[in-house]
Amino acid sequence: MTNSFADYLNTDLFFVIGSNPTEAHPMAGAKIMSSLLNGTKLIVADPRRIELAEKADIWLQHRPGTDIPLLNGLMHIIIKEDLHDKTFIEERTEGFEALKATVETYTPARVSEMTGVPEKLLYDAARLYATTAKAMLCYTLGITEHICGVDNVMSTANIAMLTGHLGKEGCGVNPQRGQNNVQGACDMGALPGDYPGYQKVANPEAQAKFEKAWGVKLSNKPGLTIPDMMDAAVEGNLKAMYVLGEDPVMTDPDANHIKKAFKKMDFVVVQELFMSETAKLADVILPGASFAEKDGTFSSSERRVQRVRKAIEPIGDSRPDWWIICEISKRMGYAMDYAYPEQIFNEMASLTPTYGGINYERIEHTGLQWPCPTLDHPGTPILHTKSFARGKGLFKGIEHTPPAEMPCEEYPFLLSTGRILYHYNVTTRYSSALEAHRPEEMAMIHPADAVTLGVCTGDKVQVTSRRGSVQTKVNVTDKVMSGMIWMSFHYKETPTNELTVNAFDPISKTGEYKVAAVQIEKIM
């Protein structure tokens, strides 16, 4: 996030696109709802009539996979009506003419045809976002989980720069992270091309620094992304895998391909709390500890580094993740002689400029937001107040990229996936209370489609894609558009990701979970 959660209560307008915070990010969603009670305006762009859409001043119900045309269309109107922030553009950005030339062709009429959004609503949204002094744009996986996810994110940056809604209180581009400590994992180098703090393995200076600190020779070659790993395993070129706190069999697209990959490998280690679907395919299962059983830090969506304190001793034979990794490293010939997590944190901070001023003493009571380079630095609640990381922000003219797979005669329905409030990814199925409240998948379909299929709420259907087939009960509702079925991925009894597309953004390698073609048949 460029800004802070505190700004949720200090903004004049939310533009929420590709995000369902009241269900998938309920703490952030609660702040948005609280802000709305105080008069904050709201624009929602979502194919479904989510809870926030019902509260919105303007709801843009665009077709799945048309985020770029939608944003280009809004920018077209903003420029045509002379609503762009010329001072910000002149002083803080470059590449405006390239953006202008691209969005010139995204007329309201064309965008309305592409997205399904009426022209009047396009004008209303563009004018409201551009003319509001403090406007926050919020997005999540509805923007990133496409084969053009990186371009989608760049488009959100384009419209924020165009209107000068960056580097200011109550503004910014604010992605809400999908899981606890996803931000922290990325910060710590859990990416194939990065050391901690996004220092690139291909950078000779970074390589030399970490070689000196760790006393080993390091490769300057980025590692494999998760999709590349799975492909390599199926091809027989990747023989072993160590999975920590993930359940890719349930959560990765084209789950049958994922299972094939795990079965093909010679050796699989899974470090987990529960017997997950991936753990069932492991040769060795290491019992990790939960957040309540270990010390350390988590970094939140707003870049805030916070203490995590052990509340109970690890249950049974489980151990903290850092301890397990250190013990394995020792047995493999490299001594990681850390006595407690603070030692690990201090070493990392000494090598990572953005974390250089953070230590356990400073975050004992309240976390700090990076970048925080020195011990006397207060942290950074708002990014880009004076300049961007590259100096001037770069506009990019971005064209529409259609989804990898669209409905056809054989597979006439569009499948989109996401989360529901009652379960957190694939972990809360182990909660008896939540399981009792929502024990099974209830896929959403439109009443018109229900009539065609001859189904009512509670009936079971078979959903089939080119990759697999699952059964689910249905919930008939006009919250989804006709021709669409919406499903969550929480239920191993209905493994939705056996249906999703094995297609990825070429840069981020994020899977396209939001669009797939399926057929639906009633189960008699």
Can you give the helix content as a percent range?
25-40%
The coarse overall form would be globular
Spatial sequence of strands, sheet with the most strands: 16-20-17-19-18-21
**What's the mean pLDDT score?**
95
Q: Major beta sheet, specifics?
A: 6 strands, mixed, barrel
Helical segment tally? 19
Poorly predicted tracts of residues: none
Query: Any idea what the radius of gyration is?
Result: 24 Å
Q: Report the structural category.
A: alpha/beta
Cα distance, first to last residue?
Answer: 48 Å
Number of strands: 21
* Percentage of β-strand residues: 15-25%
Comma- or semicolon-separated keywords:
single chain, 524 residues, alpha/beta, six-stranded mixed barrel, five-stranded parallel beta sheet, 19 helices, 31% helix, globular
Tell me what the structure shows.
- The chain has 524 residues and is of the alpha/beta class.
- 31% of the residues lie in helices and 17% in strands.
- A 6-stranded mixed beta barrel has the order 16-20-17-19-18-21.
- It contains 19 helices and 21 strands.
- The model has no long low-confidence stretch (mean pLDDT 95).
- α4 packs antiparallel against α7, α4 crosses α8 and α13 crosses α15.
